[in-house]
Amino acid sequence: MNFMDSKQPESGLLGPESDSQRTLYPYVTGTSVVALKYKDGILMAADMGGSYGSTLRYKSVERMKPIGKHSLLGASGEISDFQEILRFLDELILYDNMWDDGNSLGPKEVHNYLTRVMYNRRNKFNPLWNSLVLGGVKNGQKYLGTVSMIGVNFEDNHVATGFGNHLARPILRQEWHENLSFEDGVKLLEKCMRVLLYRDRSAVNKLQIAKITEEGMTISQPYSLKTHWELSAFQNPTQGAVGSW
Amino acid sequence: MTKQQANWSPYDNNGGSCVAIAGADYCVVAADTRMSTGYNILTRDYSKLCKLADKCVMASSGFQADVKALQKHLAARHLIYQHQHNKQMSCPAMAQLLSNTLYYKRFFPYYSFNVLGGLDNEGKGCVFTYDAVGSYEKVGYSSLGSGSTLIMPFLDNQLKSPSPLLLPAQDAVTPLVEAEAVDLVKTVFASASERDIYTGDKLEIVVINADGIHREYMDLRKD
Predict the structure, then answer these.
(1) Which ipTM score applies to this complex?
(2) Which of B9, B37, B43 is the best substitution to test chain A (most A C-beta atoms within 10 A)?
(3) DSSP one-letter string for A142-205
(4) Which of B12, B35, B69 faces A154 most closely, judged by CB atoms?
(5) pTM of the predicted model as reported, rounded to 2 decimal places
């Protein structure tokens, strides 16, 4: 799109993009995050790709981070906005800690805070270009919620962002149950991530799985999934397509 | 880099249908629990009902984030009211507050479609229906949201409320007894979920009467 051709007014909310200080579209983005509740807490998975448009520009982006003692945050969307959100949360947790009263913010509080931050920024027409997933355990209570760029938020037993909503959640709805063991939970997440890897062009085969329980959280080392590309449709994708090269 | 996204919008429509029916000594307020965006179902268990006061319940569909902000704002205003007056706000008072709150954002509206149901000061059922910018009307029954085009004509046909133009003004409350009204609500939602993809999963029904607030659920189509 050529900016010179646009016949929009010079000032106001709809001014030309060239002098805009707002995120009107994202630059470096991460794709889906998938998370679920299991027997002892929350499991979350995200790959490590960072896309620059349709170029896979970065291959080791950590998109899941611990927040305080009880929460885990996963993000898809604009990576720089995610890093800014992490700065907000670091400050929030720090100032909460300085009360030194033995209280700490749990996943419910952090999720609610994120909800207000995202909605507040959309009210200013200056959104944080992310879909966030927040999971955690506090006082034996499991919590899993999500927030979008414009502030839409909800809790559920399993959540996914972006393409995950199309490809992973149908699998989760079919196979998820309350008493998933850790091993079965990881297997289910890997199944979702494999489907995403095959069908989401911006997914990469390098992912992390994070676990959070009452005892604490761990984020796994990056690893790859076993794939199988030997199916005939993958081997010769243009078979039968007359005129294709 | 060329722009790939369509122009960003601060709004979304998360769908859902709301119904409220007022009777002589009760009020039924109901909504489904599906939350959607586009062709995606985000969750099958999200309550669209909000208890604003002891005898006042609001059902809202539209843009979830705006609805949540509106609910929080009204809850805060009601808390202040309780501190200042040492009583619960009446349903007609809450109706006026809701209208003012919506109109306050006339030029960046809350994209929410609300029906307010409850009991008035005489204990009679009352329903108030709104548009997104706050114009409102007291009626005997109402339906709003994505399935309202399917539900409203059915309610009109079954309940035949007197014209609001009649003089002297006729009472708008429906002649049904409480159990009949609850059954009617179940029927209209079962019907709406057959054709409206944004209505389904579960129906949440709240009945307000002299005994207080009573809540029940019914399963709807999940496809």
Answers:
(1) 0.92
(2) B43
(3) EEEEEE-TT--EEE-SEEE-THHHHHTHHHHHHH--TT--HHHHHHHHHHHHHHHHHH-TT--S
(4) B35
(5) 0.90
